[in-house]
Structures are given as C-alpha cells and as structure tokens.
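[Q] Does anyone have a clean structure-token version of this?
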Amino acid sequence: MSPEVFVDILRDALFLVILLVSAVIVPSLIVGLIVAVFQAATSINEQTLSFLPRLIVTLLALIFGAHWLVQKLMDYTIRLVSSIPSVIA
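[A] Here you go.
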C-alpha cells in the first residue's frame, strides 16, 4: 500500500467523522447560544436551564438524522471494503 492511498483513506474517514459529528452537534450549539442570549438578557443564571433544550435538540437530531447518518457510514464502509483488492494489488 502506498502512502498516498493511506492518506486518502484517512482523509475520507476524518471527513466522514467531522460530517457525522457536526450533524448532531451544530443544532445543539445553536440552541445553546439562543438559551445563553436569553439568560443574559433576562439575568437568569440557572445552569440547568440550558441543559434540557440542548438535550432535546440533540436527541431530535439523532432521531431525525439517524437514517442519513447510518447510510453515510454504510456507504463509506462498502466503498472501503470494495477497494481492498485494488489497494492490496
């Protein structure tokens, strides 16, 4: 296996990880920012107030995006397994 092939596989894997994680984390970050602005505007300093909305949005992102997330992961895995003969030879 040449180093270029290894770098390409690693780059694709890291891009997939970034894509899958950001699909779940970005909505939670946006809701956390909105709640933080609301807390700053109303001077509410309750730490647990921001936890529940972020938890709910994260769970909803996982529920609604799970099919897409698994499909992306399966596509990458199938592509990786099917490229084994060309990488070895």
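[Q] Thanks! Anything notable?
[A] DSSP finds three helices and no strands in the chain.
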